[in-house]
Protein: TetR/AcrR family transcriptional regulator
Amino acid sequence: MSSNEGRRVRKVQESRRAMACAAVNLVLDRGLDRVTVEDISESADVSRRTFSRYFAGKEDAVVDGLRADFARINAALAARPAAENPLTAYHRALRVWLDGEPTAWPRLERSADLLRLLHRETALLPAYLRVRDEAQTASVRIVAERLGLDAEHDLRPALAVSLAAGAFSTAVQFWIAPGATAPLPQLIDAAFAALAAEPAPSTSTTTE
Structure:
């Protein structure tokens, strides 16, 4: 990539981040119904046309930061050593993101407020589910490649990702719960430890 191309990419990324941040801040301050695309564009100092090149609507802009972080988690997952089992790899990818990424949720002042809003504001749910499902689909592809399996015909990669993503989601729910004090990394560690400790069902059968 040339230096000019690199500058253009950075400008695009900066513009997208500015619009996403403006959307989150405005919606948290006013509520989704009281924020327009024009409000977001004005706050980010871009035109309405520019906004529409990046986002289908204000809901997509609000959840865009989550998309970026899910992508970082998947990049960390893809970089994990091949010898790690999928749950361990996903867990450690989350910790790489949490420990080293400046935009990881615990480091952002209003990220917990945004996550709470996603649970309250039903109009944001479809946009969030698209972001989450896209990320999990990418995770399944990564895990399938790690295991040398066909993700379309073998259920094991999808099952591993469902378990890992479920542990992550459960930890986040406890992190944003009213009165919660435990840090997110601790909750994630506890959730994955609980998965590992889950006893296998007995193979014996009993008759009455």
